[in-house]
Design goal:
By secondary structure, the chain is mainly beta. The chain has 2 domains: about 1-35, no CATH class; about 40-175, S-adenosyl-L-methionine-dependent methyltransferases. The chain is about 0% helix and about 45% strand. It contains no helices and 17 strands. The protein has strands at about 10, 15, 20-30, 30-35, 40-45, 55-60, 70-80, 85-90, 95, 100, 105, 115, 120-125, 130-135, 150-155, 165, 170-175. The strands form 5 sheets. Strands 5, 8, 13, 15, 16 and 17 form a 6-stranded antiparallel sheet that branches. A 4-stranded antiparallel sheet has the order 1-2-3-4, with no helix packed on it. It has a 3-stranded antiparallel sheet with strand order 6-7-14, with no helix packed on it. The two termini are about 20 Å apart.
Amino acid sequence: MGVLNNLPLYYNGGAYDSLRNRWYFGTSPNNLAFVTDTNPSTFASHGAACANPNPPTLMLTQSWTRAWIGDTLEVTVGFLPLSMAFLAMGFSDQTYGATPLPLNLANYGMPGCQLHVAPDATRFAIGANNATNFQLAIPNSQSLLGVTFWQQVLAPFPGANPADALTSASIRGTVGRAF
């Protein structure tokens, strides 16, 4: 097998290739054998952020901090003028109760913003330097394998609109198993 296009993260004798979302086993980039991608954990862009030059951003803290069974999903939110944000997490991007999604937030003082995620659960975090992190433990339960979830951030943003808040782009993720 040739050298990978990106340098993988070595983890307990294996390597995670974030470009291909695959796990390999070996001791170096030149000595790797493909292990699996049959149960990958995904984390991909979904809905658009508010129409603002600098909306908050939602991304994986590191490429390997995905939703793996028995591990921790860790995301970072950037472009936060007050270094704080709410993370909405849900299991639908179609409806929240009787409310169809995406929901235009103009009537809530946020023109150009939409809620793309059913806010089944929310978390609040305060960070520093215009960013914050969220960590979510994924239980060690095989029943979660392949579960799809969505996340989106709502952040205080003074002066951005009448509500003084903006939303990030949403993401769509799936829970996977590393090995």
